[in-house]
Design goal:
351 residues; alpha/beta; Rossmann fold; 2 domains; seven-stranded mixed β-sheet; 11 helices; 27% helix
Length: 351
Amino acid sequence: MNTDKKVNVAILGASGYTGSELIRILSHHPKVNIVALTAEKNFGKSISNLFPSLSNLKLPDLKKINEINFNEKGSSNTIDLVFSALPSGQLQEIISSIPQIIIDLSADFRLQNLDLFEEVYGFKHKCPSKQTDAVYGLTELFREKISSSRLIANPGCYPTSILLPLIPLCKEGIIDLKGIIIDSKSGVTGAGRSLKQSSLFAEVSEGVHAYGVGFHRHAPEIEQALVGAANNDVKITFTPHLVPINRGIFSTIYLSSDNGANKIRTFLKEYYSNDFFVNILDKDNFPRTTDVRGTNNCFISVTQDKISGKIIICSVIDNLVKGASGQAVQNMNLIYGFNDNLGLKSLSIFP
């Protein structure tokens, strides 16, 4: 890739949380121009009409997708790469008309088994021929494949927080693959920006509730990755919860291992020693969602349970950044040969 010129990007579905987060991050990326933004319901408007926080940016007005010329060549607005922040199912309908590299933030191309996709998402896959081209975009763990792919399936937010600690451990074979229990909590933005009764302030404030109990759609995505890492069957018990915060994922993972917490912590520290965004905390330090708010970081702790042979791992990310838009930009950086952290070095705002 020629890294001397800036990358012209289009953002499909710019009016949602992940779309606006892409704009926020890319607006100060030194190697990117945003040349097209789409929103099917808000076309014709300025993005600042929807997000006043973006008012100081000089950006193109929102258009419908069918108004975007993906085949334009040789102009200052020629699109090099497309970020798709469309709802699940929509990119499948139009992907054949997009010749550019695509980084998809939906679930459209994450699951390799198309029958399982239909079972989980409730509709038949509309573009199965592209599924075999898709690479799972967990950056730290699939760098080589991502760097040469033209279709990146960005991971879900829960899976990102869970797979970053678990894939290396399953691959190394130093934990028991049976009986893995995962308790995850997410901020309200994980449900998207569309109006839903379950996301109303009075429904969410001052309480916590579980959802998707027994079968959440991210569980097959997590198991698929763990099976690939372990080269063995892996089944998890996964229960997500909604908590009254805007941003953040906090996953607590309970597992068994004959190796103690110190050995597992040391292994993960060494494994991620060259990765900018993954921070394995020292003993007796525990992550908080406020530590990673607005950043592309993942903070992980490893603790020995009082029950012999039991390990507790805590993992936190910002669901809109490392769990979505930040990781998408990280994947773009990888594809174009930029440093991982280019445009992504922001620190958490605390308090």
